[in-house]
Amino acid sequence: MRCPKCTYTEDKVIDSRAARNGSVIRRRRTCLRCGHRFTTYEEIVKTKLQVVKRDGRHEDLDRTKLVSGIARACEKRPISVEQIEGLVDSILDELESEFEREVPSQAIGRKVMERLEKVDDVAFVRFASVYRRFKDVNQFLSAIKGMIGKE
Ligand SMILES: [Zn+2]
User: Fold this and answer.
1) More confident residue, 46 or 60
2) Ligand 1 centroid to 17 CA: how many Å?
3) 1-15: b or e for each residue (b if 16 or more CB lie within 10 Å)?
4) 56, exposed or middle or buried, with CB in 10 Å at 0-12, 13-18, 19+?
5) How many whole angstroms from 108 Cα to the centroid of ligand 1?
6) Span 17-36, pLDDT tens digits
7) How far apart are CA 14 and CA 144, in angstroms?
8) How remote is the CA of residue 40 from the centroid of ligand 1, in Å?
9) Distance 45 CA to ligand 1 centre (A)
């Protein structure tokens, strides 16, 4: 790393520590020529995933959109914003490890449903009724019946 003071390119790392919950490494460095100390950050480059919609169109995977979609399903339910954010983060981590560039929109919907089902039944049905587009009424009813059976 080039020294910001004297532009010399050799330095020594004198301290490394995790920041932002381990997603970033912060390093203190000292220039081997002038002794100037400076800080660098290292973080994982996130891959840009593309969502492939049912009609074949592509669009950027938008975290904000995913959060607001789930938040809508969770309206007036005892689910905090932090919970929703955490849910979305874990979904995105999984998608990034499972897919290279393109993700079918159904795969995202399925992951959201898997998680909502464990968190809140009402939010699950709301989300499922929009995203799964139940093929027929019976399919929808059996999903609800399965939930009632759990209680
Ligand atoms: Zn220097």
Assistant:
1) 60
2) 22
3) eebeeeeeeebeeee
4) exposed
5) 49
6) 988 777 789 999 999 999 99
7) 58
8) 14
9) 28
